[in-house]
UniProtKB/TrEMBL annotation:
This is Glutathione S-transferase family protein. Coiled coil: none annotated. InterPro entries: Glutathione-S-Trfase_C-like, Glutathione-S-Trfase_C_sf, Glutathione_S-Trfase_N, Thioredoxin-like_sf. SUPFAM superfamilies: GST C-terminal domain-like, Thioredoxin-like. Residues 84-240 form the GST C-terminal domain. It comes from Undibacterium umbellatum.
Length: 310
């Protein structure tokens, strides 16, 4: 089987989610470090414009969004499932809430001036300004959450999560870890990294113990890979993960048509190519790149939109 290549950067919460899933499933992987802000020419060569982090590369297949990446890793290693049958539906729904509502509550709280040194290290004022400008452009017209609202809502969410662990269950939905645990963890991870603001967890000892439990899975075994090598791997791949899916037509668009796919909320950078998958939970297109050659870029249906390319 082709290597699992994660394009990520150190302080990316969604990257940490996938790194911990590698640890949970004991999967070896290769790590490509990507720039934290634009330009990202090597990422663009693979994705065609999708700019969120992380992406998972398997040969010439490029998987976007951690919800889909988690599904790919589940297929690669179904033991220690992220989706235990008895809680599959609720785990996915809780994960979706954590990746959106909880994340966008925790992030404004995390990026307080007192927390910046713990999160970014010795970042210069110019670098911090460039990061802020990049993320402002990325978020576009998304509503901004004030610090007061973020703190109040985060405290309420932490209390609810503590209550989910009140029966001394080791994980949020019972005896088994699930995708919900890893999604909630990533949303809270940066807050706990910064001692100046992490006291918000102090009233919630069971939640802190749960975070320790998740963190103990670690990242398993990774090997550094540079982005040029990753592009070479994509260019030399001839077989793609496009077979075995049902065709579900919800757009009136046929396989083989030229489409544009992009998120529905932020980072609205369209990726264009030939539609090759439109299944129950996945969309994918095939595109050509001067450097990467033929690649197939995969997206989850939930959280993404597709239109005919103009």
């Amino acid at each position: 089987m082709s290597d699992l290549i994660l394009h990520n950067f150190e302080i990316s919460p969604f990257s940490e989610k996938i790194r911990l899933i590698f640890g949970f499933k004991q999967l070896n992987w290769k790590s490509v470090t990507v720039p934290i802000i634009l330009p990202k020419p090597d990422v663009t060569a693979l994705t065609g414009g999708y700019r969120r982090t992380p992406i998972l590369q398997v040969g010439g297949d490029i998987y976007c969004d951690t919800s889909l990446i988690a599904d790919v890793l589940e297929k690669r290693s179904p033991t220690r499932s992220l989706y235990p049958a008895a809680i599959n539906g609720i785990a996915r729904n809780l994960a979706q809430w954590a990746d959106s509502t909880l994340f966008w509550t925790a992030i404004p709280y995390a990026f307080q001036p007192a927390a910046i040194p713990s999160i970014f290290g010795n970042i210069s004022a110019e670098e911090l300004q460039a990061f802020s400008a990049d993320r402002a452009t990325m978020r576009g017209n998304m509503p901004r959450t004030s610090m007061g609202e973020a703190k109040g809502q985060l405290c309420e969410y932490l209390m609810r999560l503590e209550n989910m662990l009140s029966d001394d269950a080791p994980f949020l939905l019972g005896a088994q870890a699930s995708i919900a645990d890893f999604s909630v963890y990533q949303a809270l991870w940066l807050v706990r990294l910064a001692p100046a603001i992490s006291k918000v967890f102090d009233p919630h000892p069971k939640l802190l113990a749960w975070m320790d439990r998740l963190g103990a899975f670690g990242h398993h075994q990774s090997e550094a890979l540079n982005s040029a090598e990753a592009i070479d791997i994509a260019r030399n791949t001839k077989n793609f993960d496009i077979d075995g899916r049902n065709f579900i037509d919800s757009h009136g668009i046929a396989l083989g048509e030229q489409v544009a796919i992009m998120p529905t909320d932020y980072a609205l950078d369209p990726v264009m190519g030939e539609l090759v998958i439109a299944s129950e939970n996945e969309l994918a297109l095939r595109r050509e790149d001067v450097r990467a050659g033929t690649v197939v870029v995969h997206f989850p249906r939930v959280g993404f939109q597709m239109k005919r390319a103009k």
